[in-house]
Amino acid sequence: MNAGYGTHESFSRAFKAAFAYSPSQYRMRNRGRWAILAAPSNVHYNLGNRVADFKTLHRGVKTMEVTIRNIEPMVVAFMRHNGPYATVGETWNKFIPWMGKEGFLGGGVQCLGICHDDPDVTLPEKIKYDACVTVR
Question: Which distant-in-sequence residues (6+ apart) come within 8 Å of 127 by Cβ?
Answer without folding.
Answer: 82, 83, 84, 85, 116, 117, 119
